[in-house]
Design goal:
The complex is a heterodimer. Chain A folds into 2 domains: 74 residues, Beta-grasp domain (Ubiquitin-like (UB roll)); 71 residues, DNA polymerase, domain 1, CATH 1.10.150.120. Helix content of chain A is 31%, strand content 14%. Chain A has a 5-stranded mixed sheet, with helices on both faces. In chain A, β1 and β2 form a beta hairpin. Chain A starts with a strand and ends in an 11-residue tail after the last helix. By secondary structure, chain B is α+β, with helices and mostly antiparallel strands. Chain B has 3 domains: 46 residues, Uridine Diphospho-n-acetylenolpyruvylglucosamine Reductase, domain 2 (2-Layer Sandwich); 114 residues, Uridine Diphospho-n-acetylenolpyruvylglucosamine Reductase, domain 3 (2-Layer Sandwich), CATH 3.30.465.10; 109 residues, CO dehydrogenase flavoprotein, C-terminal domain (Enolase-like, domain 1), CATH 3.30.390.50. Chain B has 12 helices and 14 strands. Chains A and B meet through β4 of A and β1, α2 and α6 of B. The structure holds FE2/S2 (inorganic) cluster (2 copies).
């Protein structure tokens, strides 16, 4: 079947089977490999994308169901080629990743969280990433990364006299 | 981990969905898909056709209807979680919803989907049983109501008639100044399936006695149970800790609890007594405007 998907601001037409998950469609039809296939049954969170701004698991939805809803993948968060979003930057700086398998999902969860709550408490961050497994970092640096990104996005790391 | 092939039909209204369901034996309705899609990926479910009801706008709402809060079947759990109306009218539901899966599954998972799926450990069936919810069902061009107590038949088995679709859930709203709620569950990790869950809602009188009480326990039996005998024993009392514990212990004494790799039947029974007791005590304190005890 032919479907139209709104990915990272562009509508793309793909030919796919009804049984193709959004995850497989992104990776195999659209060559967007940033959504990772971990468990493929909703347990690990590695396949997270933003669906209408909310973090969802792309392995738990068929591509055909996603027609017409704006989707953002990790490929869509950087402001320009060769640049990183403030959240991605913060992950680099705090060593919020090791092997990187969980990272695109963690970054997208952070995007969804900070869009909703610019001033999250540590528990809010822990809760937000609680559906995403990381087998490397032990999570502490990921939490630090999101806290740092939140601070920067609020403008809190500007010199005191420049803060509004 | 790839689903077997199937036909996909996106329907515009519920009668179209029912009609399709009636013509195709292997067809299944998909709402949020947070249980069905993994089942299909593991090929534990192999529907020949998926009838996608997600786009039926008329099935997604939260609104007051007389003395009940009605929630459309495809209303996302995340919407219920954020609803001020739910917080105000159904504090017990508001308490329980954050325990359903995690944020990413609540963003897709629906109220009707979780109820129709009838997992013994799921939170929504427990709250529906505890609050005596009514399920509004559509099939064959007719609408009917099924009481929560009659709806759940076994683990993942319901009394939903063949070819019918759950359209809405109506939760009765308790009115009064001294309504209190309590909810507890035990699982290996937060957001995992509950081994035991318990919910309680009470209405207290000005003199400190209990006017009305509802107690439910989930994940322990084939479907969530009400502790009727404990409710009867406790109504009219001040819900003293010892009386609560005794009534709950007695109500759960003879049950045949579920048993699996994670939790034995005796464990489930023991924990159910603890959690139901805590839920009632929390509800009592909440009704009196006091913070919950440290248990
Ligand atoms: S790949 Fe989707 S949750 Fe693991
Ligand atoms: S960095 Fe390796 S899984 Fe998270």
């Amino acid at each position: 079947m032919r479907i139209k998907l709104d990915i990272n601001g562009t509508v793309q037409e793909v030919d796919t089977e009804p049984r193709t998950t959004l995850l497989d469609c992104l990776r195999d039809n659209l060559n967007l490999k940033g959504a990772h296939a971990g468990c493929e049954h909703g347990v690990c969170g590695a396949c997270t994308v933003l669906f209408d701004g909310e973090a969802v698991r792309s392995c738990l939805m068929f591509a055909a169901q996603a027609e017409g809803t704006p989707i953002v993948t990790i490929e869509g968060v950087s402001p320009g080629p060769g640049e990183l979003s403030p959240i991605q930057d913060a992950f680099c700086e705090t060593h919020g990743m090791q092997c990187g398998y969980c990272t695109p999902a963690m970054v997208l969860v952070a995007h969804a969280l900070l869009a909703d709550n610019p001033n999250p408490k540590r528990e809010d961050i822990v809760d937000a990433i609680s559906g995403n497994l990381c087998r490397c970092t032990g999570y502490a640096q990921i939490i630090d990364a999101i806290a740092l990104a939140a601070e920067r996005l609020r403008g809190d790391n500007r010199p005191a006299e420049l803060r509004s | 981990m790839k689903a077997a092939p199937f036909e996909y039909s996106r329907v515009a209204d519920i009668d179209e969905a029912c009609a399709l369901l009636a013509t195709d034996d292997g067809a299944r309705v998909i709402a949020g898909g947070q249980t069905l899609v993994p089942m299909m990926a593991m090929r534990l479910a192999r529907p020949t056709r998926l009838i996608d009801i997600n786009r039926i706008a008329a099935l997604s709402y939260i609104r007051l209807e007389d003395d009940a809060l009605a929630i459309g079947a495809t209303t996302r759990q995340s919407l219920v979680e954020r609803s001020a109306l739910v917080k105000e009218t159904l504090p017990l539901l508001a308490h329980a919803v954050p325990h359903i899966g995690h944020a990413a599954t609540r963003a897709r998972g629906t109220v009707g989907g979780s109820i129709a799926n009838a997992d013994p450990a799921a939170e929504l069936p427990l709250i529906a049983i505890t609050l005596d919810a009514t399920f509004n069902v559509r099939g064959g061009g007719k609408t009917s109501d099924i009481a929560a107590r009659d709806f759940f038949v076994g683990p993942m088995v319901t009394a939903l008639p063949e070819g019918a679709i759950l359209a809405a859930v109506r939760f009765p709203v308790w009115r009064g100044d001294r309504i209190g709620v309590g909810f507890h569950e035990v699982n290996a990790r937060r957001s995992d399936f509950a081994f035991v869950s318990a919910a309680a809602q009470v209405a207290m009188k000005a003199d400190g006695t209990c006017e009305r009480i509802a107690i439910g326990v989930g994940a322990v039996t084939d479907f969530p149970m009400r502790l009727d005998s404990a409710e009867q024993a406790l109504q009219g009392t001040a819900l003293d800790d010892d009386a609560v514990r005794a009534a709950v212990s007695q109500a759960l004494a003879g049950i045949e609890a579920l048993e699996d790799l994670h939790a034995s039947a005796t464990y489930r029974q023991r924990v159910a007594i603890k959690l139901a007791t805590r839920a009632i005590i929390d509800a009592r304190e909440h009704a009196h405007g006091r913070p919950p005890h440290a248990h």
